[in-house]
Amino acid sequence: MSLREELEKLFGDNFHDDLASRLSHSSDMGFVPELVWSGIKLKIVPDYVVYPKNVEDVIELVKLAAKYNVPLTPYGRGTNRYGNAIPADGGILIDFSKMQNVSVDENERVAIADPGATWKLVDIYAQSKGLQLRTFPSSYDSTVGGGIAGDALGIGSYEFGFVSDNVSFVDMINTKGELVHLEGKDLALACGAEGITGVIVRAGMKLKPFTPYEAMVISYDNLDQTVKGIGEFYREVVPAWHIQVRGPSISSYIAEKFKAKLDQGKWNMVILYPSSRSTLVEPKLKRIAQSTRGNISEGEWTGWWSFNHGVNAALRTKGMLVHQHGLIHYTKLRELLESMEKLLGKLGMITPDGGYDVDIDLEKREVLLVNAFTEVSVSPVDKKVIYDLAKNTLMMEEFIKAGGSLLSIGIFAHKYTKNRL
User: What is this structure's pTM?
Assistant: First the structure.
């Protein structure tokens, strides 16, 4: 019996080898796979696509892959940009969209989730029990499995750090087809491992009591003030939950498209904190604003527009975007932005003729997640667009030169693995 015959016998309608299914799983949200398709000879189209429904299905898949010596690629929602969920040599792609179970242990304050469950789904279940996620990636619609495998950060990271800081356990199928349970230091075998050590099949995410949030905005006229403001949030003990900085162009477009309470044309720092901490947080924010010559005002937590995908949605009305994101120590921010300005044009301005803007998350270890956006200067159907899209790769290099790293490592950015570690 062949591999195909065994897969079809075991998985029936959850097994696919038609061209449409295979092609639809050969790209992510980045542009790199299309370039590879026409350039480097990697086999990014899987031979087979399988939708497991439970842990036992995944165990069977791992054992079959070992038996026939074919690669396995776990796939969540494909929201990353580095080829993390894309095959490099065909094989079997595991689509986890049929493994989305979520349960909540109220006593332990832990959400137990399948790898295909989205962070949004987990948060909904948690909130139904009076709890909520401590932190989650800014791509709220990405999956728990992908977020753990890439060790993402995002909303809530100023208080709670990376995703790996908020995982209580991981159940994983190792390369031998064995179910292993990971806790404590052993979590490093799964968190940030990008799926190379095994396939995540279940995880426990730490929760906190649900609380209403307040928001304040400190707006700045220029980059100098903004950099000083960011520094103050690492020198001053501010019990905030999430801090995000919007560049001038991004602030303007989000204010226009989604009526966000941001000062257009300025750098806007949005600070979110539990209402119960307002008497502690607000005096500190006023002192920071005064010492850094910022303008402070009441903000608004309107949910999804505060996420990076909201930036994408707002800016997409302008034209085709090139986006890159990476990690940098806050003291290196100016160096990074100045080097990118030489490459992309004026900071704080996004036009087809040049320029770029940034969206920044603050993390508790003095690390910044910097999202950079620029616009393609030619029509998407123009063959020269490939040169504009290459700005993505050039931006990767700027993060490395400034002593930073990419947010995660996929098959198209593996040479930066050491920096990420």
Answer: 0.90
